[in-house]
Structure formats: structure tokens, C-alpha cells
Amino acid sequence: MKKLTTLLSCLLCVCCSYGQSRVSWGVTAMTEGNWNMSDGKTAWVNYLEADLNVALWKGAQFEGAAIATYAAGKLVENSLLGYSNIYTDENKPFRLIQASIGQRIGSLLYLSVGLRNIDIDYFTTPSTSFFTAPADADFPIISNNYPVATFPMSAIGGHLEVYPFEGFVAKVSVYNGVAHETFDTQFHFRPSAEGLFSIGSLSYEYKTKGEHSANYTLGYVYGKIPGEGAEASFDRKTGLWGLVEQPFLHWRGTQWCLLLQGAVMTRHTSGTHGYWGAGLTVNGISNRKMMAGFAVNRMHDHLEGNEVGMEHTWLVPLNNWLSIQPALHFIYSHHRKDVVGLLRLSVSLGNL
């Protein structure tokens, strides 16, 4: 925690030195209680994130982000789909999840090189990032099959975005094949020993009546990663994934959106082979601009069996920096059924 406190102090100093026009910053703190209603297990989970973007030369900026996590108690439900997207197995006062230099070239290209995180680069659309289950914004075929830079890990790599036409975005990223979470190993780029991982997508987005835009995304994953065993060579795994967020109704100030997700491995794997999800979100509810949602997820795994998760959640803003989010999860696996309740309190400050 001391390291993150020091980072926050430096962040404020930088903001004062450079001024608001050159610096964007944000601090997000979350605390939540978890309760497995099936067996009585409880846990208390805490998350702190600091983000900093600093303008450098024309079209360039430094992009940084760090997190701290602490949980009192272990997972109250141990499924692969999960129920909390801020829980980590190990408490750490400091994890650097992004430290990169980005360069925008006109209105056509954006290139960033450095320490990066896949979730930040690809899974931040409004409905996808709204739910508390990690599978909604961290597709299981990626996080379960590759040792790569999904939460809370990061890896050295390059990220390219191309904007060929209005509304279209093509993304391609290449990372070190194995992600790390300690400062002394995060900046290693060793493709000969740890392989490579690539993810990319083509998205089309257009504005609709209401707060959220429509989004259609089709993507791929490819990994050349170390295999298992004493004389193991590299394993090559490929997959496809897709995402649709489609507003379809605007009624009495609310916007109703359909969420569809899918992913499949194109080569046989002994782990997670496929995943799909469907959901409904409603934003702009009442004068508080609350948001509600319901989602169903199913995962196919050759080792652990199939799992189905359902989530119902509400986001209730109390003001422009404080919100609460209760969630109820129904999780069905081949060996048990669990009902998990979650109550999250979030504080967000900054000008990002």
C-alpha cells in the first residue's frame, strides 16, 4: 500500500506541475462484501486503482495505471466463470498494469508500446464492463487457456489501432507470451523462452438515441505459449470471439440494450473450448440515472465440465463520484449449485 500511496502523491504533483490541459488522472476505489448463500461463506474484497495520462510531444502521451488489492477471506464460490471482477488470489499492495507510450498519427493511426493489459485494450464497452462477473469482460477462452495479460496481470507488447472509416476501428496487439505481476519481471520480452500472444479485432460503432452507442466486434486470439512437461515445446492455440451491444428501445428516458458474446477455440484444447453470453441492460433509470442488467453465461471446459452463470445487478449513483452496486449470482457447475450475493461501494475521482 505504501508504494501505491507514493504513486498517488506523485500523480498529484504531476497534475500540479503540468496543469489540467496536459494531464488526465483518475483514482477508483471499490470495496465489496461477498456472501455465498448456499454454504454461508463470506469475504471482504477491496480494490484501488490509479490512472495517469501525461501529454508528451505532439500526438504522444504516457499511459500509466497501477492497482492494489486486498481480500479478507478466500473465494466464497470457486467456479471458472466467477462472480467478482476485482478479486485476486493474492493480496498485493502494488501491481503495475500499464506503463506505455502512445503516439497518435493524424486521425488514422494510434500506436502504443510498453506494459499493457488486454482488458483495458479490448473489453471496456459499456454493457460488457457493467456486470460484476469477470467472464463478461474477460472471455474465459483467453484467461483460462493463455498465461497472458488479463486482470490483474500485464505484459510488454505493442498495440495498434487503425481508423479506416467513420465508426470502424481495427485493433492488433502482440504481447510477451507469459504475463507477470512483479516489477522485476514485467518488462521482460522473451519470445524465444515465453512465446508470443496476439489478439485483434474489427469493430463498428455508431451513435444511437440514448447514452450508449451500438457496437459490433469480431476478433481473434493466437498464442504460441510454453507447453507443459520437462521437454515441452510451444503450444499453438487459436480462437475467435465476438461481441454485440445493440440498443433497441428508448422509453421514458431509459435506454434498453441487448448484449451478445461468444468465443470458441479453433483448435482442440484440453481446457476451455467455448463460451457464450447474453444479457440485457437498461440505463437512465429515474433521476439518479441508475443502470440495471441481467446476463446469462455458459462455458464449455474439457477438464472442469460445463458451467452456467446468471447475474442480476443494479448500479445506483449516489452522486457524481459515489455509487453502490448490489448483484446476485446463480452459478451451476457439474458438481454444485451456488447462490452468491455481492454488495459493492465505488468511489471515482479525477478528470479521465
Automatic annotation (TrEMBL):
<dbReference type="GO" id="GO:0008643">
    <property type="term" value="P:carbohydrate transport"/>
</dbReference>
<dbReference type="InterPro" id="IPR007049">
    <property type="entry name" value="Carb-sel_porin_OprB"/>
</dbReference>
<protein>
    <submittedName>
        <fullName>Carbohydrate porin</fullName>
    </submittedName>
</protein>
<comment type="similarity">
    <text>Belongs to the OprB family.</text>
</comment>
<feature type="signal peptide">
    <location>
        <begin position="1"/>
        <end position="19"/>
    </location>
</feature>
<dbReference type="GO" id="GO:0016020">
    <property type="term" value="C:membrane"/>
</dbReference>
<dbReference type="Pfam" id="PF04966">
    <property type="entry name" value="OprB"/>
</dbReference>
<dbReference type="InterPro" id="IPR038673">
    <property type="entry name" value="OprB_sf"/>
</dbReference>
<dbReference type="GO" id="GO:0015288">
    <property type="term" value="F:porin activity"/>
</dbReference>
<keyword id="KW-0732">Signal</keyword>
